[in-house]
Design brief:
CATH superfamily of the largest domain: Neurotransmitter-gated ion-channel ligand-binding domain
Order of helices and strands: HEEEHEEEEEEEEHHHH
Low-confidence stretches: none
Number of strands: 11
Number of helices: 6
Helix content: 25-40%
Length: 340
């Protein structure tokens, strides 16, 4: 029996080690900033001018973008033929329209092409700070046929920007950023003759930094919650002999708080962590339950409401509990906001 237990323990340990190794090697590749340009690569200057963004959907991590993209290059490789927008999500509605029938020749001898791009793009939204979250709307461009040593992007920082009519309802646009990356897939894609053991490509990205206005947090989410919480707190102001009201008000506030939380979570994707607003609601639940327990305990343990001195003592305790709750709630909100 002891021998069987030892064998079982070894098998279990081996299985755990195998799972850990699998988790460590599950994802291949990396994407990091490009620090220098390859010596013999064809350099392609790329620029962006987003005109329209709509359909921003937090629940599906997507948005629709209408933008101009232009390319300038010297060399035999035509980047318009093999360029790929690697974070598009619906190929059926993706449009890439070349605005010049043939690349034009600039005064410096460079070839020039401009295109009109429309489509849905994927963006992983991080919601830890919701509803005061800051998001990035990004597009990533990569050449699908030529490696980093053959072909590299450079951003046209001077001419790139954001269209003057670009607005995103419900969001404030802060700024934009564009840069180049090196995308190493970490695999040879089955090419056994590959000397590098992997495939590395140049990537250009353009991102728009946005954030929700603070008014959304204050007036649409925090204010209704404060009104409901104040209703629970009012039970601590009532005379101790009003038992039904002192228990009914926090109970009603508790149920209302559940529906308020459900109202904003319906617009969020299924996530496994608490957002900023969830953390505020957790404390709100605790404070409402404390008010409810106080109302129940006052009616259960105190029956001598005809004694003015006893009633004054209970009221003084209620005022202390109310003051502590208000201080804790206000301090907690300030602490959360200062740690964003």
């Amino acid at each position: 029996m002891k021998f069987k237990l030892i064998i079982f323990a070894k098998i279990l340990l081996l299985a755990l080690l195998t799972n850990v190794a699998t988790a460590d090697t599950l994802k291949l590749g990396s994407m990091k900033p490009a620090e220098s340009l390859p010596k013999d690569a064809q350099i392609v200057t790329i620029g962006f001018l987003p005109l329209l963004i709509h359909g921003l959907d937090i629940s599906t991590n997507t948005f629709f973008l209408d933008t101009y993209v232009w390319l300038k290059w010297k060399g035999d490789i035509d980047p318009t033929e093999s360029m790929e927008f690697i974070n598009t999500v619906d190929r059926a509605d993706f449009v890439k329209e070349l605005l010049l029938k043939e690349p034009s020749i600039l005064s410096d001898g460079s070839k020039y092409q401009i295109m009109h791009i429309e489509g849905h793009f994927f963006q992983k939204f991080m919601l830890n700070d919701f509803p005061l979250d800051k998001q990035k709307l990004s597009i990533f461009v990569e050449d699908s046929s030529h490696g980093y040593q053959q072909f590299s992007y450079v951003i046209d920082q001077q001419a790139s920007g954001i269209g003057d009519q670009l607005e995103i309802p419900g969001w404030d646009i802060k700024n934009w950023n564009a840069n180049t990356l090196i995308h190493d897939y970490g695999t040879s894609f089955g090419d056994i003759d590959s000397l590098s053991g992997g495939s590395t490509y140049s990537v250009a990205f353009f991102e728009i930094n946005i954030n929700r206005p603070s008014s959304y947090f204050i007036w649409k989410l925090l204010l209704p919650l404060l009104i409901v919480l104040s209703g629970a707190w009012m039970s601590l102001v009532l005379d101790p002999n009003h038992i039904e009201a002192r228990t009914g008000m926090p109970a009603t506030a508790l149920l209302t708080t559940v529906f308020l939380q459900q109202g904003y979570t319906d617009n969020l994707p299924e996530i496994g962590y608490l957002v900023l607003m969830d953390k505020i609601y957790v404390l709100t639940y605790i404070l409402i339950v404390i008010s409810l327990i106080r109302g129940i305990s006052t009616g259960y343990f105190n029956t001598d409401f005809d004694d003015p001195a006893h009633v004054a003592k209970v009221k003084k305790q209620d005022q202390f509990i109310l003051g502590v709750q208000i201080s804790v709630f206000a301090g907690y909100i300030i602490w959360l906001l200062t740690n964003l």
